[in-house]
Amino acid sequence: MDTIENHKPHIRQYPDANGFFGKFGGSYVNEELQREMKNIENAYNTICRSQNFIHELRHIRKHFQGRPTPVYYCKNLSDLIGGARIYLKREDLNHSGAHKLNHCMGEALLAKFMGKKKLIAETGAGQHGVALATAGAYFNIKTEIHMGEVDIAKEHPNVVRMKILGADVVSVTRGTKTLKDAVDSAFEAYLADPVNTIYCIGSVVGPHPFPMMVREFQRVVGIEAREQYQEMTGELPDHVIACCGGGSNAMGILSAFIEDPVRLHIVEPMGRGEKVGDNAASVKFGTEGIIHGFNSIVIKDEKGEPAPVYSCASGLDYPAVGPEHAFLVKEKKRYEAHTVTDIECIEAFFILSRLEGIIPALESAHAVAYAIKLAKERKSESILVNLSGRGDKDIDYVEQTWGEYMKKFPNYSLLEGIDCSGINIL
Ligand SMILES: *Cc1c(COP(=O)(O)O)cnc(C)c1O
């Protein structure tokens, strides 16, 4: 149907008034929570039109977060692969080391406007917890982070960071004592007092209005990157690539290029392999279903429940994707979804560290790995990668688990067929 509606850019057209992106999204929660989601939506719709709010967020981004983050041309890596030009949007240089602070500052600013007394969230590896604790400190709002006992033991540095920043870390001892139990625990704490607290979701997931709101807070990444890239090169990139857990960094950068003649790619973790429980490639292996209050693509077990998932990058360890990604991949066919294994991710981690002096987060290394594969095939084209975070958090794990890879460079499978003899790094 050729209606005016169809000519609106995607960003203006979606989500609809009920939070749907096609058949994906919505708000599948009980009545009590539905009321609170409506309050949050109304508050968001008010402040996003307020000049004060827009000014304050701009001020925060520039002076506190250090935005705009640069776009960087990877000359060494591009020269090595031989033709294709690889650029990085440096979200690793955003304050606190990843893109997550973009939506945490927005959510906390909204909480301040709503007069909330406490921010509540769950965290798996601690990245979302640290970003929210940072926002809580900035706005002087109490912050309560729920974290599984197992993850607390595993992710000690992030637990300490949250405590230094003044957050209360609640140890969750039920069930498997990991992320899913932390979500349940945080939700209960929120439902006990939804008037004075706000649940700050960590990606473009959850019931409406969160997927829309988190996207709007992350769009700054793509708006900056598109302008910076054009300023540097006079054109648009041929490809834009982002890793995808829930999908906030991907939505942030890709949203700016949806109307452009640019190929858009999301990269999911293939982990140890294709068996259920060994990966978190939701688009590849998932089917339509409801999870955490929204309809999307979900990896399920035999009973139809969300299945356990795995990736060496804990930020990608989620059995679904945000509803807008499900829509853009499955219904609109606007993106291509790819997978990268743990091993390819680790190789890309070392390649970027050694060739460019940039240690990427393991999540972001998935996007870099796919960029390298693509660059080998598309020698005359240009590729913009969202480097969602820095890898300082991952160095102990990489040394302990993948230490032998430190010696093997440059005989990596990702670089097969590439002449690495001129590289002087080992
Ligand atoms: C959390 C995290 C991700 C994954 O989250 P998305 O919502 O999919 O962006 C990716 N990269 C880094 C560095 C993260 O901390």
From TrEMBL:
InterPro entries named in the record: Trp_synth_b_CS, Trp_synth_beta, Trp_synth_beta/beta-like, TrpB-like_PALP, TrpB-like_PALP_sf
Molecular-function GO terms, alphabetical: tryptophan synthase activity
Gene3D superfamilies for this protein: 3.40.50.1100
EC number: 4.2.1.20
Reaction catalysed by this enzyme: (1S,2R)-1-C-(indol-3-yl)glycerol 3-phosphate + L-serine = D-glyceraldehyde 3-phosphate + L-tryptophan + H2O
GO cellular component terms listed in the entry, alphabetical order: cytoplasm
Signal peptide, first to last residue: none
Record flagged with keyword Transport: no
Cofactors, names only: pyridoxal 5'-phosphate
Keywords: Amino-acid biosynthesis, Aromatic amino acid biosynthesis, Lyase, Pyridoxal phosphate, Tryptophan biosynthesis
Pathway: Amino-acid biosynthesis; L-tryptophan biosynthesis; L-tryptophan from chorismate: step 5/5
Stretches assigned to the Tryptophan synthase beta chain-like PALP domain: 66-389
Coiled-coil annotated spans: none
Keyword Amino-acid biosynthesis applies: yes
NCBIfam families tied to this protein: trpB
Name used for this protein in its record: Tryptophan synthase
